[in-house]
Amino acid sequence: VQWTDRVLTEFFRQGDKEKEMGLPVSPLCDRETTSRPDSQLGFIEYIIRPSFRALEKHSPFISTDVIPIIDANYKYWLEEKAKEEEESATSDNK
User: Fold this and answer.
1) Which residue among 18, 21, 66, 80 is least enclosed by CB atoms within 10 Å?
2) CB-hemisphere CA count at 13 Å for 26?
3) For residue 93, is pLDDT > 70?
């Protein structure tokens, strides 16, 4: 979570600069529209999991030691997404 926050902080600074300069805001760089959980779920789905699945063919420990950690992280971010959606629905009802 700490690295997620660090990376998104940097992305949001970039987005703020892009807005100041009148440029289109890059994907994941708009602090008003970017979802932390969605950003991480996408990162795991499209970058992390495929990369380690490819490495798995060459290093058997990936299957037993790394993939379970990736799966646990994915589950964590799914839970965070559910919380975010619940909070959004609650605030929309006010």
Assistant:
1) 21
2) 12
3) yes
Q: Compute the distance between CA of residue 13 and CA of residue 82 in angstroms, rounded to an integer.
A: 26
What are the structure tokens assigned to 85, written together? 């959606």
Answer positive or negative: Cα dihedral of 8, 11, 16, 22: negative
Model confidence, pTM: 0.86
11: which 2 tokens? 């992305």
Contact 64, 52 (CB under 8 A): no
Percent of the chain with pLDDT over 90: 89
Tell me how far apart the alpha carbons of residues 2 and 28 are, in angstroms, rounded to a whole number. 17
